[in-house]
Amino acid sequence: MKILFPLFALWLWATPASAFSFDEGLYAHPAVKKELDYLRRHPAYLERSRARAEAWLPHLLPLLRAHRLPARLAWLPVVESAYLPGALSPAGAAGLWQLMPATAERFGILVNDDYDGRLAPLSASRAALTYLAWLHDYFDGDWLLALAAYNAGEGRVRRAMKRSGSRNFWQLPLPAETRRYVPRFLAVQKLLGPPRASRPSLTEHKVKGPLSLSTLAHRLGVTVKELKAQNLALKGNSVPAEREVSILVGHTGQHRAQRLVPINAQPLFTTQAAGLDLSGAGGLFGEVGAVFSQDAPPGWRPY
Q: Which CATH fold topology does 24-110+119-200 show?
């Protein structure tokens, strides 16, 4: 069993983060401006997602630096899952980054009856960031096309480019969801700004089975119940033997139970994401019993 993070992460924190090179005129595009205007009128929804992100940013920012990706990509899970680690969509996507099973397997994530690595936030983040870096290269450094492809698939974006004879995202015949997804992310990352990380509250262990959860829990100094509550990827009673998997343990018990949460696609302003306690994050951030509206903001059209 290997414990990851400290030395490598310290070196990465000393490495300057890259940034998007978007022209400021991009934020004047009507689709982006509409998202910006709405978010400015309803700041509590972004702040709630920012609060959920706090536990993960100390781990995500070093990964972004290692991939030489813009730090503000750390805000993409705000759009994908509202930073709910146990988010499950009707289409079959799961986790912070809403990976589909085929995409997860393509980038080395184990998904089977005993373990769903899409619900292991750091493993899923490595896969998602590898995919985003690949898409960025595939579309010759065009982030709008790469983001569209993350949502709709690179094949669909390529076909849209071929049909339209254009590489301009705004001119492509893409699904309505994708045409909203990209400007929504542009607005979110603009308003949230550069992500900042506090000290990490989690330790990642890389574990290869076969190993019972009772044995693993004993070695880590937690109960099986605590182990499963902190690691939604563990679906059975043992660690699978197929490959190494990611196990997270809180340093001081700060990382409390997560829950599987059904969501709609891109749930930032949907009913399921409106109440902080629904994800178990209320306990994580000391806000159990906090009162939030369970309704989407008025006038917002969810995907």
A: Lysozyme (1.10.530)
Nearest to 96 by CA among 105, 88, 108, 104: 88
Handedness of CA 259, 262, 265, 271 (dihedral sign): negative
* CB-facing half-sphere around the CA of 286: CA atoms within 13 A: 3
Cβ partners under 8 Å of residue 301, min gap 6: none
Query: What is the radius of gyration, based on Cα positions, of the chain?
Result: 19
What does the block give as tokens for 300?
């917002």
Of 148, 139, 203, the C-alpha closest to 180 is 148
| pLDDT, tens digit, 9 for 90 and up, residues 259-290 | 666 655 544 443 333 322 222 222 222 222 32
CB-CB contact of 122 with 296 (8 Å): no
Assess contact for 85 and 273: CB atoms under 8 A: no
pLDDT in tens, 163-215: 999 999 999 999 999 999 999 999 999 999 999 988 888 889 999 889 999 99
Positions marked active-site: 80
The rounded distance, in Å, linking the Cα atoms of 8 and 91 is 36
Beta bridge partners, 203, equal 249
Sorted by sequence, the CB contacts under 8 Å of residue 87 that are 6+ apart come out as 80, 81, 94, 95, 96, 98, 261, 263, 267, 279
Q: Let me know: does 175 contact 182? Beta carbons within 8 Å.
A: no
What kind and span of H or E run contains 212? strand 211-212
Distances in whole angstroms, Cα of residue 172 to Cα of each of 26, 144, 162, 185, 301: 16, 11, 9, 18, 22
What region, left, alpha or beta, does residue 142 occupy, with left being phi > 0 and alpha being psi -120 to 50 degrees? beta
Cα(92)–Cα(101) distance, rounded to whole angstroms? 8
At 154, is the pLDDT very low, low, confident or very high (cuts 50, 70, 90)? Answer: very high
Say how far residue 224 (Cα) sits from the centre of its chain: 26
Domain boundaries, the chain: 24-110+119-200
